[in-house]
Amino acid sequence: MIQMVSPPARPDSTVLAQVIADLRAALGDQVATGAAVRGHHAHGEGLRAPAMPDAVVFAHSTDDVAAVVARCDAARVPVIAFGVGTSLEGQVQAVRGGVCIDLSRMDRVLEVNAGDLDCRVQAGVTREQLNTSLRDQGLFFPVDPGANATLGGMAATRASGTTTVRYGAMRELTLGLTVVTASGEVIRTGGRARKSAAGYDLTRLFVGSEGTLGIITELQLRLFGIPEATVAAVCQFEALEGAVAAVTLALQTGLPVARIELIDALQMRACIAYARLEGFAEKPTLFLEFHGSEAAVAETAQQMAAITDDCGGGGYRWARRPEERSQLWKARHGAYFAAQALSPGCEVMVTDACVPISNLAQCIAETRADADASGLLCPMVGHVGDGNFHVQMLFDPADPGERAAAEAMVTGIARRAIRLGGTCTGEHGVGLRKLGYMEAEHGPALKLMQAIKQALDPNGIMNPGKTIPQ
Known about the structure:
Elements: H1 13-27, E1 31-32, H2 35-40, E2 55-58, H3 62-75, E3 79-82, E4 99-102, E5 109-113, E6 118-122, H4 127-134, E7 139-140, H5 151-156, H6 164-167, H7 170-173, E8 174-181, E9 186-190, H8 202-206, E10 214-222, E11 224-225, E12 229-237, H9 240-253, E13 259-263, H10 265-275, E14 285-292, H11 294-310, E15 313-319, H12 322-333, H13 335-342, E16 347-354, H14 357-374, E17 380-383, E18 388-395, H15 400-419, H16 438-442, H17 445-456
Helix pairs in contact: 1-3, 9-11, 9-14, 10-12, 10-13, 14-15
């Protein structure tokens, strides 16, 4: 079974009512307590069991966030940050009630420094919004987790995605942050310089902390120039092992592939039906993309084709026009909803893991064997260029046996990844669902994490019950 940590008791109702009244007096109609609004903020995408906050505050500025946090800390009332609700591991569930701070209205691009390839944005700016605003300057921000998530949420969960193999994840591309600490103090971490040896790296402490140490309100981000040429390709294989082998060889050869995504035969069946892909077979498939000059892209694509040929791949389909590439990646990004459509009425329990590239083939093969033995439909996708893959378990929510089988799959994948030198979560984060694996993955270092949590959030108000077992 998935191991959960029992949440502490909720705050005293009288104290909570006074805090909400104080917030209304200070922020007016930015404070909402209606059931519909609270219900919308009670869960993310991947863990649907709702846990409702007692109030939602729609912040417009860092000062708003600081005012809310300071009042809640003084009264020992929990605070949960919320972007657009795309998290998958229960990060936004208000397991102790309290106040949810919705950052989606903090959606301004504050500055773009084209010459230095960086920008500063508020936490509620989404990745698609940022890229739309950058396009006329020939720039883009590459981290692409699929969902149109807020950049603050992406930093809080240390997000990555389809382009990580070439450009890096939020960890590498976040230069600095504005953070509201648990006491309501506003601090700035990092800066615009590409490197620094001054003091502790607080930026990377908050990146991935899932709102348990502070609330990110602004981000300084690295940008890249839009490449001269972009070509996408799809290559299909008779066997899953051949596709994984091709990925491993490409990376060991050092090919500068911008995206390299794996979809197994079952997930390909789902994508063909859901996205109306024509001319594709229900086979293991690699989705590829190459960035660079025209000559560099042509050379890399030719080298990749030679590798896939040696591994049993074929039937290449190329997409050079933007609309063709968009259609292919829309199919890949819609994999979650395509999987749901395989069995209407079922729920999807999704998980992820990440292992060293040399162990990827073994991890996927063992996972596929467990999936086949489970009796469930378990389509698989992966950012395999960085050893990260996802399994989506479809189960009947009314059947306890199927739910238990899905939970057993999650546990097996997490433990296998750790055993093979990897992690129980490559990009989804810990939230609630992965708490039970933190000790196995981190050992004695977990105590240091708990000490950091205690030092930065002594009253335990910041997204309690998440990320670090307490």
